[in-house]
Design a protein that fits this description.
The protein is an alpha+beta fold. It contains 10 helices and 13 strands. Helices cover about 35% and strands about 30% of the residues. Strands 11-9-12-8-13 form a 5-stranded antiparallel beta sheet. Strands 1-2-3-4 form a 4-stranded antiparallel beta sheet.
Length: about 325
């Protein structure tokens, strides 16, 4: 009986130690390991794909798709030309180019690189025109002049109709004396706000690039008059002005007003400055039956083309802007 058990145990030992079984076991283990690796790779790939697609979706939602819309009504004679996006897993970098129309030509006015994270605030990484603005007094022009660091061209300023100033520039008189092959941008400020119909009659349509819309109310003007003590802080920088571009092929009229207001309404939820602008316009248009009012305009062209704007009695001030060669 004991001999039979011994033989049986020896057979079992021989079976477990057989080379073919060991190979089968090793092969099974390799297959199992490969399966686990494939499952891990597949699972990781799926999770990364979901993470990337989800990140891309959120970042795309975070990108302000209304930038083009906003810049169509903000920034005097400054247009958003194009934007390119570079996506990372947790952020996207947007490089935007801005242009100005001067006469029949377009110049690059600024370039800006902005980092938009998946969560948190956006960050401006680089701005061609400069992150910090430096004003310098120009003895000849008798006012503070601001320059664009990107191309060293003058920035334009507007003068409010109702505020008092120590000095009102009339630089249109300089513009018309420049070389005939120059193209010049000039910001015109009106003595009194005008409706679109009045501006079309008095200013005309030729060589008019942009119209400055009045977005202030009486309380704001009174506060500015009482608290601001120098001309340099009482002016409205062109880059922060509300208005819209125009061209002679499509003459502006009162029909442009509702479209402008409609654009502001679309943007007000995400921009506090737009909310304030709408609030001011609601008050100041009561006297014009809801028609928007204009405080100024941007015109451009050759010295000869700008002569038509000289000696117009409704112009309170004029400021030189960008000046480029025609050829």
């Amino acid at each position: 009986m004991s001999d039979n058990n011994k033989t049986k145990n020896e057979n079992e030992i021989d079976f477990m130690s057989s080379l073919s079984l060991q190979r089968a076991v090793k092969k099974s283990k390799r297959i199992q390991t490969i399966k686990y690796m494939l499952i891990a790779i597949l699972t990781t790939s799926v999770l990364l794909a979901i993470l990337f697609i989800g990140s891309h979706y959120i970042l795309t939602k975070r990108i302000n798709n209304q930038d083009h819309l906003y810049h169509s009504i903000h920034g005097a004679n400054i247009m958003l030309s194009d934007t390119s996006y570079s996506y990372n897993l947790f952020s996207v970098e947007a490089e935007t180019t801005y242009t100005k129309n001067v006469g029949d030509q377009s110049i690059v006015w600024d370039k800006q690189t902005e980092k938009i994270p998946l969560f948190g605030r956006s960050e401006i990484l680089e701005k061609g025109s400069g992150m910090v603005e430096v004003n310098s007094i120009d003895d000849e022009l008798k006012r503070y002049v601001r320059y664009n660091n990107f191309n060293n061209e003058r920035k334009i300023d507007f003068y409010y109709p109702t505020l008092s100033y120590d000095y009102l520039p009339h630089e249109l008189d300089i513009a018309v004396t420049l070389d005939e092959n120059k193209l010049i941008e000039v910001a015109l400020s009106f003595k009194e706000p005008m409706t679109l119909t009045e501006a079309a009659e008095k200013l005309g349509h030729d060589h008019v690039n942009w119209l400055w819309v009045d977005t202030t109310n009486v309380a704001q003007m009174e506060k500015m008059e009482q608290t601001l003590d120098s001309d340099s802080v009482k002016t409205k920088g062109g880059g922060g002005a509300f208005g819209f571009a125009v061209r002679p092929e499509v003459p502006y009229s009162e029909e442009f007003g509702p479209l402008f207001i409609q654009t502001l309404e679309q943007l007000k939820e995400n921009r506090s400055t737009v909310k304030e602008a709408l609030k001011g316009m609601k008050e100041n248009t009561q006297a014009t039956n809801g028609n928007i009012r204009l405080n100024g305009a941007v015109v451009s062209g050759t010295p000869a083309e700008l002569e038509k704007f000289q000696n117009l009695d409704f112009i309170r001030a004029s400021v030189l802007g960008a000046t480029i060669d025609k050829y």
